[in-house]
Design goal:
By secondary structure, the chain is α+β, with helices and mostly antiparallel strands. It has three domains: 214 residues, no CATH class; 83 residues; 149 residues, Histidine kinase-like ATPase, C-terminal domain (Heat Shock Protein 90, 2-Layer Sandwich), CATH 3.30.565. It has seven helices and 14 strands. α6 packs antiparallel against α7.
Length: 465
């Protein structure tokens, strides 16, 4: 379904389905980074405590050393308790390792836990960091966090530089992040489903007045109600008021059309009755009587249309070929002076499903226009189609044709293709109104066979046996 034809509810749902994962995904990334940052901050503080704890247990003792030349000089000895307060540094392979360096790259002391540690301290740390600065490296080098701290130890007026380096395995940190991500994904999935369901219900609740309005409009079209309800939200109130006004105006206009049609048809009844009662020439008796009867049928039909508005509840099977032949016979007499050749003698039966008078009205208007505007040739074709069951009628002539720019315009009431001919431009509009009431179609084009106008008509038909 394309976006232009989809429902408003579908548009809202598509927007929610697109925006909700984007929003929750962005939130998941932000929460993951914030959680990771908080864990690193906690690791930083813990390792600072390890540094301070190591410094508090560290002790330097003076000692004298004798050089190869026999002179003596001041030196020191670093002492640490056999067991540190933090037992993690006392157990081998615990993941916690501590080192103390002097001015050389060789460790002055290392924790008991490092005795089985195969890795060597990162020598690049020995040249980094200022005195009194905690240098934390959260990068997971060889699977460890590292922190170093430089300190100046004073002994007998001598400044001795020391550097404490702590290593801590990050497997617990990685496990905590992995567990957090799984939990976060689970909760966000639940939140997504819950929000989707809630938003769907909110959208349905918000669009319920529109669905109700659509249902009432359909009931109006089906004749099940006469007006719309007034209990709509304020956003829809102007639309409902305009629809009410439009319905009322259309109903009043339709009533005026019916009254005018009924008055016109009724006013013709008396003159026709007088004409039918007058004595006539025996030579023209039959033709005149047929036309008077035909005019009476038309008046009766228009009176019925004014009352019933062509509800099509009682349909019949009408042979369209027979109706065409009758209309052509009558028009040949009316337009005998034009010597028109009409090709309609070999039409096969094809049954229209509807009112015969409606078919007579439509074909009468179309064929009368063809006779009026042709030069001397008219071609009529009639075909039957089973899927869907329709009959197709085309009426072609060799007249001047109709300008493509006006082909749809002349189907409107009061519009005419040629102002030189007499008429009010109503016939095609009436025909189009009847065709539309049967869900039929009428198209106008240029005739490929005769070069003039071509009217193609499609109406409901009967399936062939």
């Amino acid at each position: 379904m394309s976006p232009n034809k989809s429902s408003i509810q579908a548009r809202f749902l598509w927007a929610v389905l697109c925006l909700l994962p984007l929003f929750l995904g962005t939130m998941a990334i932000a929460l993951d980074r914030a959680h990771k940052k908080s864990l690193l901050h906690a690791e930083n503080e813990k390792m600072q405590l390890h540094i301070l704890n190591t410094i508090t247990q560290l002790e330097l003792l003076p000692s004298r050393t004798e050089s190869s030349s026999g002179s003596t000089g001041e030196s020191f000895t670093l002492q640490m308790p056999p067991q540190l307060q933090d037992t993690n540094f006392n157990r081998p392979s615990s993941g916690y390792y501590a080192f103390v360096f002097g001015t050389s790259a060789k460790a002055l002391w290392k924790s008991a836990s490092s005795q089985t540690w195969s890795n060597s301290p990162d020598r690049s740390l020995l040249s980094k960091g200022a005195v009194g600065e905690y240098l934390f490296q959260p990068e997971q080098t060889h699977g460890f966090f590292t922190m170093s701290y430089r300190v100046i130890w004073e002994l007998n007026n001598q400044e001795i530089p020391l550097q404490i380096v702590i290593y801590k395995a990050n497997n617990a940190h990685s496990s905590a992040i992995s567990s957090y991500r799984k939990t976060l994904a689970l909760y966000l999935t639940g939140i997504t489903l819950l929000l989707s369901a809630m938003l769907f219900l909110i959208i349905r609740w918000g669009l319920a007045p529109l669905h109700r309005l659509s249902g009432q409009v359909k009931e109006l079209e089906a004749g099940k109600r006469n007006s719309l309800e007034d209990s709509y939200p304020q956003e829809l109130a102007p639309l409902v008021d305009n629809l009410q006004a439009l319905i009322s105006t259309e109903r009043q206009q339709r009533e005026r059309y019916r009254d005018t049609l009924a008055d016109l048809a009724h006013s013709l009844k008396t003159p026709l009755a007088i004409i039918s009662g007058l004595p006539v020439n025996p030579q023209t008796d039959k033709s005149l009587q047929e036309q008077v009867e035909r005019m009476n049928e038309i008046v009766d039909y228009q009176l019925q249309r004014a009352v019933t508005a062509s509800s099509h509840r009682f349909m019949q099977q009408v042979d369209a070929a027979s109706v065409i032949q009758r209309i052509v016979t009558a028009l040949n007499k009316v337009y005998r002076d034009k010597n028109i050749g009409c090709q309609a003698s070999e039409l096969k039966p094809a049954f229209f499903i509807g009112d015969e008078r409606d078919l007579m009205e439509v074909l009468g208007n179309l064929l009368d226009n063809a006779y009026k505007y042709t030069h001397d040739q008219i071609a009529i074709t009639l075909t039957n189609q089973d899927t869907p069951p329709v009959i197709s009628i085309s009426i072609e002539d060799n007249g001047d044709g109709i300008d493509p720019a006006r082909q749809q315009q002349i189907l409107q009431r009061g519009q005419r293709a040629d102002s030189r001919q007499a008429g009010q431009g109503i016939g095609l509009a009436v025909a189009m109104d009847i065709i539309t009431s049967y869900q039929g179609t009428l198209t106008i084009s240029r005739s490929k066979r005769l070069g003039g106008a071509c009217f193609s008509l499609s109406l409901p038909g009967k399936r062939s046996i």
